[in-house]
Amino acid sequence: MDKSILDAITLRAEHSAAAMLERGYSTYDRARMLPRLLPNLSQSATTDEILFALRAAITAERKRAGHWSFEPNRLIGLMQALKAEKRS
Fold this sequence. Notes:
- By secondary structure, the protein is an all-alpha fold.
- 74% of the residues lie in helices and 0% in strands.
């Protein structure tokens, strides 16, 4: 396949992923989404603890890439939550 075609496909995928993260960030609701993403996190956790837990969960999920237990939608949700929590 021509390199310019591959570059165009890659660029389109990057824009699509960025748009998906942006949409999820804008509709993020901590009370509804955080317990689903981090079920073992205390409800009285501080923002710093939440950020730490989200970063750890993202790292763990990325390590599962290529394994049958990898869940790309969970990774996207974690990344959306991290972006929203950073801005709150």
